[in-house]
Amino acid sequence: MITQKMKYALKALLVLGDEARSPAPQPLTIEMIAKRSGAPKRFLEQILLEIRNAGLVASVRGRAGGYSLIKPASDISISELLRLIDGPIAPLPCLSRRAYQRCDDCTDEATCRLRKVFAEVFWSYLILIESLSLADMLESDQVAASITGGDS
Prior knowledge:
Layout: H1 4-20, H2 30-37, H3 41-53, E1 57-60, E2 66-69, H4 78-86, H5 113-131, H6 134-148
Antiparallel strand pairs: 1-2
Helix pairs in contact: 1-2, 1-3, 1-4, 1-6
């Protein structure tokens, strides 16, 4: 399950992605992002700072300032964003590729039934989640809007 913080980060990036695709993209203030995404401004400040420090967005100071994407949406990996915001995504620490830790109560990983079952589920999930980018989410949003007749 993703955290509320991750949901706000995705919503903010989707707003910035929509703006980046507009004919004349402009940096968006936190207030604009909050209004368009429905995410609380007080949470967005911290989240956008983390995302900026990771090199996904840039911030511009001043009257015409705000945030904008600096990487193409197709280069913004959802799995990397999940790890940045929520930490390791493996269901067990012994399955994590980047934050591996042996389980405290494990006597033998090779025969651990919990590890075997969760590994199968996790690898399937990982294949899917690592193939997703912000561009995929923006595209699926447009497809949904064309099907329902709305604009998202």
